[in-house]
Protein 1
Amino acid sequence: MQNSSDDSGVKVAMFDTKTYDKEYFDKLNPQKIQLRTIAASLNEQTVDLAKGCEVVCIFVNDKCDANTVMALEKIGVRLIALRCAGFNNVDLEACKRHNISVVRVPEYSPHAVAEHSVALMMMLNRQLHKAYMRNRAGQYVLDGLVGFDMFGKTVAVLGTGKIGACVIEILSGFGCKILAYDKYPNPRLGEMSNVDYTSIENIISAADIITLHIPLSDESKHIINDAAIGKMKRGVMLINTSRGGLVDTSALIRGLKTGIIGSAGLDVYEEEANIFFHDISNQVLNDEVFARLTTFNNVIITSHQAFLTQEALSNIAETTIENILEYAAGKRFDELSNSVVC
Ligand code: NAI
């Protein structure tokens, strides 16, 4: 943990800080922000690490449930600044009750996440993970590595916001047919000759590849469950770079075992908080469901890495600093440009 010695400026406790976060924040941080970088994640037990700070700056796996929010208020925290777009880990009602404003980075690089989603598709399709391992071992044989042309394949894109739209644009370059589903369809995408908006049932049952880009909410939790998997084409590829909770992992495992799900590329996992972003190579993996998932050779897992590009890190630091400076200038709640309101 680091403390700035200067006593001026708004004091910010940045939880879950990695070396790359510090590098990009240090590059852009004006003198007006005193940053205390903390390696630990924020939760009820670690709140006190923020004592003396008005602002906590958090990421995807910091947990701001009702008890944590109450404890934050007690130590004088008045702003939660998310360094990400999703805010499913923050109890917004509790923040309102405890007079704490919440801001986020609504867009830092939809391209980063979209390109990673397509990278997972291509890696699974052309079995690059197996080819890499084989070639390292001197096994220059091709049996079992047969892929498919992306051209002409049908891809279901669930969620056509900023990231989903980028995915559609990239896949259109491949010549894919897109079946799109969103509560609020994007007319610009709807006009593309290869894009059809339709119901979730239709897209799930017709797709060769399904890719998830809707936020996690009570409504979308486990949108991919046994019932949805039961409607899918045999051998479908599932990509999830959004939030782990969109997929019922036990149902996914059943789908993989029966072969309905032919392959899966996952950048998120519903119980990722104690696994992703940590080096657990010297520990026993206690999560039985995750352990089972890692045994499939047609599953690729990356540990919430989709956002991790130079451009995204720079944008995250820039917008977070702007958010905090707006707060320091006296703005609160929905006066803040990137306020999250419940
Ligand atoms: P966005 O807000 O631009 O788009 C989300 C879209 O989903 C909107 O068009 C919305 O109408 C639609 N939607 C919301 N709930 C829905 C529902 N229940 N059914 C149908 N459509 C629904 O968000 P953006 O920037 O495209 O990000 C999408 C998600 O990607 C984020 O919520 C976040 O969870 C995830 N993400 C993952 C990252 C990673 O590193 N793996 C990084 C950044 C975001």
Protein 2
Amino acid sequence: MAEPLLRVENLCKWFEVRRGLFSKPLYLKAVDNVSFELMRGEAVSLVGESGSGKTTLGRTILRLLEPTKGRIIFDGKDITHLRPKELMWYRREASLVQQDPYGALPSFMNIYRILEEPLLIHKVGDREERRERIFKALEEVRLTPVEDFAFKYPHMLSGGQLQRVAIARALILRPKLVIADEPVSMLDASVRIEILTLMRELQEKRRISFIYITHDLSTTRYFSEWIYIMYAGHLMEIAPTKELISNPQHPYTQALLAAIPDPDPENRKRFRKVPPGEPPSLINPPPGCRFHPRCPYAMDICRREEPPMIDLGGGHRVKCWLYAKR
Ligand code: SF4
């Protein structure tokens, strides 16, 4: 059986929020016991509301944040506790596309320098080879004629064009893994699908493993083979994209889908119940299932015991007591 490119085992990222003189430390458990595998060339959408822990999970996987517990195995190597110097090779293999292209790209550099910087840091090629790579990267993200774009500065480009530069920069070292954190949420609706389609094309062409982080479940169908649903620091449901959209099992996933306007009246009727309330505090999360205060199906056991991840077959897994054989 093929080895996954990325294996995340019981990963936790907790932030210490206060340490009283005599009291125990308190932790905000942004990511709590998350496990999954990502195969080579596979695209996954990681979906959840703001504050669900999805950005923290992405940054912890990239080792931009130090994991609290658990393990991250990348390409057969345990990278969980590598020191910054030992992480140089990983920085080349795994990159990030950020939400805000305006903030992510240095305003004092032109596009050519922005794309050349990672090549210089990682000592890739001579001047001519770097030039070729930069022009090819601009062509791939369709910023043409490339000679025009290469010497412009970020303030001279639109949001969509800047995000194309950010994608080119994330791909220029030919990474095996890219994590894109809400890459289209700050862009005009008219260019969102264009950018997602471009990322998907490049992901397929280069066989990159991709994690697309989003709060917008409606955009995932353009992008990924798998959807992971995250809530309050936990993965709640994992399934192939079509299966999850057509046959959601977790009450939270059903609620997320219900929030998407659906032109089909049949689908509109299926999931009418959007649970009221807010995600819980991650410093003092509710016992049992973290979704129980909002769940219309909550039972006694849900308030006492955390549900296990239950395998429904075909890669579909759900963390919910409704599906446990008891
Ligand atoms: Fe609802 Fe219980 Fe399932 Fe949690 S475990 S989602 S509370 S039914």
Protein 3
Amino acid sequence: MELINGKEVAALLKDKIALQVLEMKENGGKVPHLAAILVGENGASETYVANKVKACEQVGFDSSLFRFANDISEKTLLEKIQEINDDDNIDGFIVQLPLPKHIAVDKIINAIKPSKDVDGFHPENTGRMVKNLPCYIAATPFGILKLIEHYNIETKGKHCVVIGRSNIVGSPMSILMARDGNPGNCTVTLCHSRTQNLRQFTLMADIIIVALGKPGFLTHDMVKEGAVVIDVGLTRIEDSSKKTGFALKGDVEYDQVAPKCSFITPVPGGVGPMTIVALLENTLKAARKEVYN
Ligand code: NAP
């Protein structure tokens, strides 16, 4: 069994990005600039955004954080998005989800200029992804592709089972694994909460990507010998022995499943660190106008 060390791969890729930023600077170019909009005071969102800002500093990007109170109106938020869309100094931006209930998420995402949508959530980028055209791929699936690439994991002709069909992870992941490319060219089964006898599918899988948010869901009796298991799940479980008061648990019963695998990601330290690197990569692409020009 080989452990997929997302922390290590993320550090390597960050170093590469930092070198490219130095080069851009030396050539008199503009440094990539990522902005984030954060609404309200959700603990997990605060941490995610703080980590994104920190990652920008690490690679030499400029970053801006726009914070708003929970009761911001949809109209004011849309105006801010328009302002950032028009700001030539900002190459890409994200609106941290979830948003308060009184704000229509789709309306907000649709207002982001596709060329600055480095989270890859705008329908224009999703559509381009489906058609295998240049696009920003959503950060978590993009990070997973990078891990598969880094470890030279063969995907062509394999059976990949994705569990979870969210717009940000499972659904794009299933499309990417089925696309004609590398990684890709898998035969994909997409499972969700209405799937009957899910185990019959996972037992046939060469690659299982688990993204449902149910700690320990994938157990050893659901996995065949030699499978590749990618655990996207990240659930906070109360743990008084930790400084933070919580531990992070994945969707895989790791201790049981790992011995059966050819490759497996740990939680934490697997997919998580790659998500931020993927966002940085998209921002670099935006600054270089590689996707839209
Ligand atoms: P989500 O929007 O809650 O979607 C969960 C999906 O799982 C849904 O499609 C749901 O099916 C499916 N599901 C729920 N119970 C199921 C069951 N018993 N059997 C089969 N499918 C089931 O979740 P998400 O946003 O994709 O996130 C999933 C997990 O990944 C969470 O733990 C999240 O924290 C984590 N995550 C991690 C990263 C990272 O960077 N590491 C990034 C994003 C998310 P239905 O559609 O039928 O309801």
Protein 4
Amino acid sequence: MKILHISAECYPIAKVGGLADVVGSLPKYQNKQGITSQVIMPFYDNKFTNTHKFITVFNSEFQLGEINYPFTIKKLKNNSLGFDLFLVDIPELLHKKYVYSNDDTERFLAFQIATLNWILTWKVKPTIIHCHDHHTGLIPFMMSQCFKYDRLKMIPTVLTIHNAQYQGWFSHNKLNLFPAFNFKNVGLLDWDGSINPLAAAIKCTWKVTTVSPSYMEELIHSANGLESLLKHEVSKCKGVLNGIDTEVWNAETDTYLIKNYKISATQSGKKRNKLYLCNQFKLNSSKPLFIFIGRLVGEKGAELLPEVFEKALTKNELSILVLGSGNVEIEKQLGDLKAKFKGKYNSYIGYNEKLAHIMYAGADFLLMPSRVEPCGLNQLYALRYGTIPVVRSIGGLKDTVIDISKKDGVGIVHKNVAVNEIIEAMDRAVELYNNPLGFKKIRKRGMQKNYSWEVSATSYINIYKSLKA
Ligand code: ADP
């Protein structure tokens, strides 16, 4: 069985969020389970592509509207990722420093057309084509409707929704960019008057998965306008919880950490990482250290953080460190707090993979007051590194973090995205921190949870098998 994953992001090549982590690890675990799983993504102009060697396996050209673009398919020369990696190189459109911007429609449509043109030339076609999010959502439509891809029609497609908030909308004026298709079925592309790649994918794909079971249930009621579509298609939808790459996320071997540690030496290992963070960011290391890592957007509840931090820091003895970027106003407010709470609060506005790893290792608590959380990987990394998650009960957070008041609890859970509830949850965390025996017990329990890909990789393989029959 040969699976081709098609994605805009893949760790460590290009990462904006959790999508990259999933596409960079699931195929590796699928290969370990005896199937052949490969990845294709755009060739961006970034550190990875500039420092690795590739071989060209195919070159041709394709048409986007009136324009012909040359393209090549490149393959990563060494096989260090645990799967074959192919990159679509369209210099004019994809050689960019960024992954996403305001020219996404043309860029990702071109990426998808070039990918399908290449697959047409494969002697033995993929068994399954697995698309991820709206950036690759036009693949199932084009495979089933464009005359040119008639020979790919019988290949089953799977769409995984990592985040339904973003749907890739564009105007009907751009229909001329598509290869010729049966115009009678143009409605498959439309949702509410726009071309909607995510909606088109849900309609045309053979199977839809979401990255957690609870997120699947939630999408039927709230999916940024697509709820009725998902309700209609519910029989082909399934939630499969994301796993984590336990080779990358391993406190014993993680090369980003200041000090590696085994579960039996968690206390001393975490202490060294905490001391480093507190020195770097001028925080008091004797207090419980709370962190937030992520996109500073409404989905993550980030606009409440300045008020929450102001109140929590005034009331409690604690330290807070933030790593993230996003909404400019939130970035500013989080920056402004630094002067007011010197020694207690600091923030790093930007993206920093190494710092994120040290923070998961050095912190005591991770805050995730998310409004929407399809799966959430941060809480899984935190648990594995012995940092207790303080989360809002939603989506994947609901599926992975049980409150400490319950049997097998590993974190602190609040129901709503509200300033007072987040502060109450932080109060409970400080209380737990001040009870060293209880704190260590919960931390150890969280570290023993197994959220690796083994189980979920099998669920995906079972889905593929059911489509192949
Ligand atoms: P998202 O909705 O952003 O995809 P996830 O929890 O699924 O959220 O995944 C977020 C991933 O991105 C995690 O690996 C997290 O550590 C990483 N991340 C988010 N923001 C930053 C940042 N500013 N610097 C470094 N890593 C980050």
